[in-house]
Amino acid sequence: MAKTKASDTKLAVENTAEETKVTSKKSTPSSEKKEISVEDKLRALYRLQTIDSEIDRIRTIRGELPLEVQDLEDEVVGLETRINNFTEELNGLEDQVMAKKNQIKDSQALITKYEEQQGKVRNNREYDSLTKEIEFQGLEIQLAEKKAKEFRVQIDQKSVFVDKAKGDLEERKADLAAKKAELDDIVAETQKDEEKLITKSEAAYSIIETRLQYAYKRLRSNARNGLAVVTVQRDACGGCFNQIPPQRQLDIRTRKKIIVCEYCGRILVDPEIETADAAIEAVV
Ligand SMILES: [Zn+2]
Predict the structure, then answer these.
(1) Contact 65, 172 (CB under 8 A)
(2) 54 CA to middle of ligand 1, Å?
(3) pLDDT digit string (tens) for 232-252?
(4) C-alpha 205 to ligand 1 mean position (Å)
(5) Band of the pLDDT at 60, cuts 50, 70, 90?
(6) Strand 267-269 versus strand 229-233 pairing type
(7) Which domains does the chain have, with CATH numbers?
(8) How do residues 110-121 score in pLDDT, each as one tens digit?
(9) Cα–Cα distance between 273 and 253 in angstroms, integer?
(10) In 10 A of CB 222, how many CB atoms?
(11) Distance in Å, CA 265 to ligand 1 centroid
């Protein structure tokens, strides 16, 4: 652990405008073992950030998939319920059509019976009475036919919905199976990577001096993208994208001081400190 004088290590990450001098110019060869150069500190911080960003990325990927699977499961249940309801309604309508058909048969039987009776009547009054009954049953048949027709129209309309819902259900079920498989794969695959990365992150974190650890943690928890250490990108801070003056950029490139962004307070490093590829390689 590097033990520098408080006056030398004035890391004011909270005070974003201040620069930090962690240089240890006076370090003698005998103390070299204990002293870590600023450049090494910056490199360690950047490596820690790279590892932690990779952990964040894994968690983000996995974080959304269970929700997608849940959504699809809900959708499948919803469609199944809708199909069941429609099917019940269809059965009810079929029953009603059947009831009307039976009613028509009954009326037709009555008409046949009344017509036979008309052949055996003894007076006009009885004949007229039967005629009225036959007329009434005839109207009943017409009404029942009209109703049955209406039910059939409803059956046709509902059948279209049922077919559509069944098609949707098959699609969603296929989507769900695919997403579930994807989730299982990712969980199996990322768990190992994540555990490895956590171990690496802890190792990288432990070699950083305490005050920088706190600064890093605080910055990371405050930043929405979890970035505490950023590179200079196109003359701007890689975290908040505010411009960095040329002199400040030069200071960053010399790697003799820990410099924070005067706008967002993130620790700034030059992009060449360690290529992302090399950092990732060191991670995995
Ligand atoms: Zn910034």
Answers:
(1) no
(2) 21
(3) 999 999 999 999 999 999 999
(4) 22
(5) confident
(6) parallel
(7) 2-36+207-283 (no CATH), 66-191 (1.10.287.1490)
(8) 999 999 999 998
(9) 8
(10) 12
(11) 6
What is the distance in A from the centroid of ligand 1 to the CA of 256? 19
Give the E-state strand segments of 129-242 in sequence order.
229-233, 236-237
Backbone φ and ψ of 274, nearest 5°: -165, 125
Phi, psi at 232, each rounded to 5°: -80, 125
The per-residue DSSP string of 232-272 comes to: EETTEETTT--B--HHHHHHHHHTSSBEE-TTT-PEEE-GG
The mean pLDDT value for 98-111 works out to 97
Ligand 1 center to residue 66 CA distance, Å?
33
Tokens of 237: 């801070």
- Residues counted in the chain: 284
pLDDT in tens, 265-279: 999 999 888 754 454
**Amino acid symbol at 3:** K
Using left for φ > 0, alpha for ψ between -120 and 50, and beta otherwise, residue 235 falls in left
What percent of the chain is predicted at pLDDT more than 70?
Answer: 84
pLDDT at 172 over 80: yes
Tell me 20's DSSP state.
B
Q: Report the distance separating Cα 152 and Cα 154, nearest Å.
A: 5
Coil/strand/helix, residue 10: coil
Q: Helix %, strand %, coil % for the chain, to 5? A: 70, 5, 25
pLDDT for 4 beyond 70: no
CA distance 97 to 102: 9
Cα 276 to ligand 1 centroid, rounded to whole Å: 19
